[in-house]
């Protein structure tokens, strides 16, 4: 932006010659200093937060609410650190924990631990902190142990939880937290503690851990470890090489493409389709319009009927895993259910990159058979998996979730 602003007296007239509407660009440049200040402030929030709260057992991580973090920083910097910490504890109510726990399913190594985590959440919601705290500490240790290249858990001595391009996985983040949680506790204490000292709690030395502050910090640590776990599981611990700087021709091409995307977005309107009249209720993929979201769903279901789990995996959202591994996971989910037939009930184009398609499925599973209506959320994506307007050249439809019975 700084380079663009410097060159704007030359670039803006050229954009107008190319037919690009530069009025919004000119307006953005007038607000550049304000934008630059806001970006610098946002970039400094994680370090400011960790400097203030890491010693108290809190660190910034990817899914933490930014407004909550900013408010806590403001209070702490004004001298009200204890009050700020109470606000952080209140932030981790049962609904927040439940939502962030759902995101842990994105870590394959945590899925086997989810049932136990949900029981710990039940205890947390009912204020049985004496029960939830040891369980979450165990989940935290086991998850790190499974994914760490040296098989070291969260509480192992000298464990290193750094990862490139991560908000939480660095020296001021998770590595600082491990040192606090690992602290040795050699004397029995009965007063309430404020930090989840693993050794003191699990070895019966800190008997005053039964409180919401300790329990909330355990959940916060687990969700912070998710940042590192996603990188570890995807082989992304090392920071990626820096991207090459864009040339002026790249910049012009990107601006032109953005302008074309804007026109596609403005031109888009949802289709009004009557199932059985405008499109078939069921049939082979070739009977549905090529490049349509409903054809994508029909192709997926046809491969399910044929038990072709490798081809099914190509329609699912997780592009980070090798297709062979994804196919094995699809087999685990779908192999026990035989899909006999399907009928489309309804098609709803919700957004330029999203359609929701309801399909009734007739199936057999073990000694059971029946039918059920399933909702498919289908996203229009580019080659990198980014949502794009469905009319953009090269866009492909992919299923946003794994629909199961």
Describe the protein:
By secondary structure, the protein is of the alpha+beta class. It folds into three domains: 1-21 and 243-267, no CATH class; 36-233, no CATH class; 271-399, Nuclear Transport Factor 2, Chain: A. It contains 15 helices and four strands. The chain has a four-stranded antiparallel β-sheet, with helices on one face. β1 (337-351) and β2 form a beta hairpin. The longest helix has 22 residues, at 32-53. The mean pLDDT is 87.
Question: How many angstroms separate the termini?
Answer: 49 Å
Q: Spans of 5+ residues with little confidence (pLDDT < 50)?
A: none
Rounded mean pLDDT score: 87
CA-based shape: globular
Estimate the helix proportion, in percent.
40-55%
Radius of gyration: 26 Å
Which key features would you list for this structure?
3 domains; Nuclear Transport Factor 2, Chain: A; four-stranded antiparallel sheet; single chain; 15 helices; 48% helix
